[in-house]
Amino acid sequence: MADVRYDVIVIGSGPGGASLAQRLAETFEGTGKRILILERGDYLRRSEDNWSSQKVFVDGAYQADETWTNSKGKTFAPGLHYYVGGNSKVYGAALFRLREKDFGEVRHAGGISPAWPLGYDVFEPYYAQAEALFHVHGERGEDPLEPHASGAYPYPPVSHEPAVQDLSDGLAGIGLHPFHLPLGILLDEEPDGTVKPTSKCIRCSYFDGFPCPLNAKADAQVMCIDPMLAAHPDTVTLLTGAYVSKLGTDPSGRTVNAVHVERDGREEIYTADVVVVACGAISSALLLLRSASEAHPNGLANGSDQVGRNYMRHHMSVLMAVLKDANRTVFQKTLAFSDWYYSADDWDYPLGLVQMCATSHPEQVRGEALPAWLEWLPRLPFDKISDHSLDFWLQAEDLPSPDNRVFYKDGKVHLDLTETNPQALDHLKRKLKDALNRTQGPHVVLERSLYLGKDIDQGGTAHQAGTCRFGTDPATSVLDLDCKAHELDNLYVTDASFFPSIGAVNPTLTIIANALRVADRIAERLA
Fold it and tell me: What is the SS3 string spanning 133-157?
């Protein structure tokens, strides 16, 4: 047992935990207060394998070695990554603000996306801080649905390469509004788009879904953990290989007084005035469920029976357009458009967001089922198909349902998921194909089945959210408006668990912004 008490313990070093810890470390400097960060994984090893499509996508070398069960009794491998920095080590670093309307009630073909208990105005200043913290590159005013912002992006947009610029021009020519994708990236460019000699990022093709061995992706380790440990060594301690098995409470059940950790084959117990859970929406819910006790028989903070429920992740698809002419783009992930986010000319309900993803590599293409009717590209080898591909990531909003949930059964993890709004993604694919038919030369659009090492089905947990929603009513929510558990005095959750709805943009920037907001509340509490 560790005979050490901290002021704050943060469980998880992904965007939600790392951002909160960094903000608190700055506040605590010189006060004697201390923060402990517990990470179940280790640092992801930097090597040439980080740039191997075979290792990353086909072998799933960095994916957690776990097997879960779905509602049909079938097993699958979840797309989770246990490293310092969490899932952000392999994310695509697309950092969007939720649209202002996303904070209100929105009617979809599949049902209602509920309103948030706090409005966009509460989050706006923290969005600005999050964009600065994660070096977001973008251009205000290009996206017609962009929410109000108090200032410009902190860094200029990542420039388009010629083929992407041609696509942007073509989409604009048919009345759409393509914009530069907001990216968290450590890139310095010359005015003509060439990379400056001192830039960490070199604009390689191994960005979306790959770990970056150059530490040029703005992930939670690079932007928060490492700078924080260097600047505040007396304030912050990071323990890796530290799996939190459960949280214990005092006899009243109102205060977490023990964080049980399995590390190096032994159990350690840590205590703190405030405990912050930020393991990712799925893993945070599982930790609370594992922490059931006499005072909390259904799981910690689960008197509402909502822990683990209302699980959401975007309806997602990757489409690869195989063009007649070669696409020489190296860094392709620079464009997005949201014209059909809330409706289309032939569909009255929201569709979602289209953004480009990284260039396909032959090993990825080799895993696809390719049609035999590519007549104008006969017997094309995989490397040539990748040379001719133009790749898009599509995502539509998933709607919360109490029956979509993660839970334990017979000691095993179960994840039940039924699609709530599949029509949106179907129509989004249709509209994108139509736009490409109008703007591109001869091509074939293929649905990609391989991404992040798994099909983008139940195992694709990249955009997980909603398992501990926040709200004002303890009967229907797990957390209060400060993301503190209704039923406990010192337990907070700062990953995407708190989301009441997920919108159709990538959730990471909202996670970071909220973590900064909650950090301010905890700092006020401990002042």
Answer: HCCEECCCCCCCCCCCCCCCCCECC
- Per residue in 249-293, pLDDT tens? 999 999 999 999 999 999 999 999 999 999 999 999 999 999 999
Residues 470, 479: Cα–Cα separation, whole Å? 4
> What φ, ψ does residue 183 adopt, rounded to 5°?
-120, 140
Q: Lowest mean pLDDT: which of 193-197, 357-361, 426-430, 518-522?
A: 357-361
Specify whether the backbone of 466 is left (phi greater than 0), alpha (psi in -120 to 50) or beta.
left
In the numeric block, which tokens belong to residue 357?
Answer: 């993803």
Torsion of CA 201, 203, 207, 210, to 10 degrees: -60
Contacts with 407 (C-beta within 8 Å, 6 or more apart), sequence order: 289, 308, 413, 414, 416
Judge contact between 267 and 439, C-beta under 8 A.
no
Residue 465 has, within 13 A of its CA and on its CB side, a CA count of 25
Rounded to whole angstroms, the Cα distance separating 335 from 353 reads 11
Q: Which two tokens stand for residue 522?
A: 């905890």
Burial class for 96, CB neighbours closer than 10 Å (0-12, 13-18, 19+)? buried
Summarize pLDDT for 438-453 with one digit per residue, the tens: 998 767 776 654 433 3
User: Which tokens sit at 294?
Assistant: 């006499």
Q: Tell me which DSSP letter residue 91 carries.
A: S
Q: Are strands 315-323 and 353-356 parallel, antiparallel or unpaired?
A: unpaired
Host H or E run for residue 243: strand 243-249
Amino acid symbol at 445: V
Cα 458 to Cα 338: distance, rounded to the nearest angstrom: 25
pLDDT greater than 60 at residue 377: no
Between the CA of residue 433 and those of 102, 239, 356, 408, 430, what are the distances in Å?
Answer: 26, 48, 14, 41, 5
Contacts of 67 (CB under 8 A, 6+ apart): 75, 76, 77
- pLDDT band for 78, please (50, 70, 90 cuts): confident
Q: Against a cut of 0.85, is the pTM above it?
A: yes
Report the candidate in 460, 459, 457, 395 with the shortest Cα–Cα distance to residue 429.
Answer: 395
pLDDT bracket for residue 366 (50, 70, 90): low
- Distance in Å from the first CA to the final CA of the chain: 28
Per residue in 151-191, pLDDT tens? Answer: 999 999 999 999 999 999 999 999 999 999 999 999 999 99
Model pLDDT, residue 326: 85
Cα–Cα distance measured from residue 186 to residue 134, given in angstroms and rounded to the nearest whole number = 9
Q: Is 314 helix (H, G, I), strand (E, B) or coil?
A: coil
pLDDT-derived band at 318 (thresholds 50, 70, 90) equals confident
Report the alpha-carbon distance of residue 290 to residue 300 in Å, rounded. 8
